[in-house]
Every structure is written in C-alpha cells, then in structure tokens.
Amino acid sequence: RMQQLDYLQRRLVHPAQRIQQQTDLLDAMRRRLDLSQGSLMQQRAWQLRSLMQRLGALAPDVEAPHHLLATCSQRMAAALARQLERHEDRLLALQQHLHLLDPNQVLARGYSLVRNRNGDIVTDSHQITNGELLDIKFAQGGAQVLVQETLEPKVV
C-alpha cells in the first residue's frame, strides 16, 4: 500500500510537465497537419497547372483533361477530408488523455496534494520535520496541518 502511495505521489509530482509534454505533442501534430495539408495542396495545384498547360496544348480535345481534372479534384477533396478526420480523431484522443492528467482530475479521484511552506510538493516523509506546517489541497478545498510525527515507510 505504501509503495502504491509512493507511486501515486510520484505521479502527482510533475503533472504540469506531463501536461506540457502532451501540449507540445498536440502542437507538433497540428504543425504536421498544417504542413501536410499545405504540401498536398501545393502538389495538387502543380498538377492542376500541369493539366491546364496540357489542355492548352491539346485544345481540340478538351473533354478528356476536364474529366481528369474533375476526377483529380474529387479525389483530392476526399483524401483531404479523410486525412483531416484522422487527425481530428487523434487530436480528440490526445485531448481526452490530457484531461485525465489534469491535476484537478487526479484530486477529484480522491488524492490530495501536499506542499511545504515553500510551496514544494512533498513526496516523502523525509522531506518534512515535526512541527512543520503543511498545506494540503483536496478536490474541494484544502487544509493546513501541523506535523506531529513522521513515520518511516513500511517495506512490503
């Protein structure tokens, strides 16, 4: 039980860092999405220009390039829609995961956050001394407590 408590306390130590990592990942994915869409649009625009030039050279047969252009445009729109949907799904999944890592969500599950007078998170009984005043944050409210005795962790 103490190991589980220690494990859970270590998870509470850096929730802001985990949130920042997930935010950075989301930002990177957004940039990749923007770049890939821009690249695809440039490629399709180049293809369109190429087809238009070919159309100009083959003026008597205008029906085939128009059909090809329409087909390419439809395929491009469908591919972009599928790609956007995949990226939106991934973004939603990451946002949901990020929500689970929110410190307030952890507190809502029954955990508390203990800080010393300097505002540092307390993760070990060796970090505190008898007579020290600590701040405890719960999901709803908090408390200030005075340490009367520190206990050694039980080895399981």
Describe how the helices and strands are arranged:
Layout: H1 2-13, H2 15-57, H3 63-100, H4 103-108, E1 113-115, E2 133-137, E3 142-146
Antiparallel strand pairs: 1-2, 2-3
Helix pairs in contact: 2-3
Detailed description of the structure:
It is a single chain. The protein is mainly alpha-helical. A hairpin with a 4-residue loop joins strand 2 (133-137) and strand 3 (142-146). It has a 3-stranded antiparallel sheet with strand order 1-2-3, with no helix packed on it. It has 2 domains: 2-106; 112-146, no CATH class. Helices cover 63% and strands 8% of the residues. The protein has helices spanning 2-13, 15-57, 63-100, 103-108, and strands at 113-115, 133-137, 142-146. Helix 2 packs antiparallel against helix 3 (63-100).
